[in-house]
Amino acid sequence: xxxxTGSSPLGRSLLRNDVYTRLRDALVDxxxxxxxxxxxxxxxxxxxxxxxxxxxxxxxxxxxxxVETQPGRxxxxxxxxxxxxxxxxxxxxxxxxxxxxxTVSTLTDDDLERMRAANRDFAAALxxxxxxxxxxxDERLHAVPVTALGNEAVESVLEHFGPVVRRVERMRFASHDxxxxxxxxxxxxxxCAARDAEAAAAVAFDTWHSLPVTPDAS
Length: 218
Description:
By secondary structure, the chain is mainly α. It has helices at 16-28, 40-47, 51-64, 82-103, 109-128, 131-149, 152-173, 179-193, 197-209; strands at 37-38, 67-70, 74-77. Strands 1-3-2 form a 3-stranded antiparallel β-sheet.
C-alpha cells in the first residue's frame, strides 16, 4: 500500500473522529483506490497515531461500506457497488428532501446567501477542474437546510451514508454533466427564497436521486 507523501502527521491529542475523517476523505478522493489493501500499521504511521484509532476508524468505514474487513486477515477498499450506492443515494435524497421541506419557511437571508455563495464556489471549481473544491462547495450548500433543521437523526444518517455516494458524485463532477448540478442548485435556492416548500423539496430530492449509481454512468 503506497502511503501518500506531503501530509503532516496528526497530533497525539487527535480525536478518534479526526482519524476517521482523514481516512474517509482519502477513500472518497481516490487516494486509496478500490481493491487496494489497507494496513493499519502503515496508516497509523502516515497519520502519526497509534493503531487503535485507525482500527476503530476502519470498523466505522466498514459499516458505511467504504472498506471491507476480514477479522484477523485484511482490510481492502470497497469497489463501487451499484446496489449499495443506489440504496445510499435514495436515503440521502429522502433526508435532504425532508430537510428542505421543513426549513424553507425559516431559512434566513443569511442562510440563502450562504447557499448562493457555495454555488458560486461550486461553479468556479468546476470551471477549473477542481473536483475536491466542488465537492466541498456542494456539501456546504446542502448543509445549510440540514443544519437549520437541527435533526440529529438526519445528520447521523447523512454522515453514515454520504461518503458512499460521494465517491460516485466525485466522478460526476469531473464529467461534462456537472453543469446540471449548478443549474439545479440555482433552482433550489430560487424556490427556497420564494418559500415554496414542496417545489424546493422536490428539487432537493431529484438533485440527489438523479445521481448515477455506477462510475461510468452519465
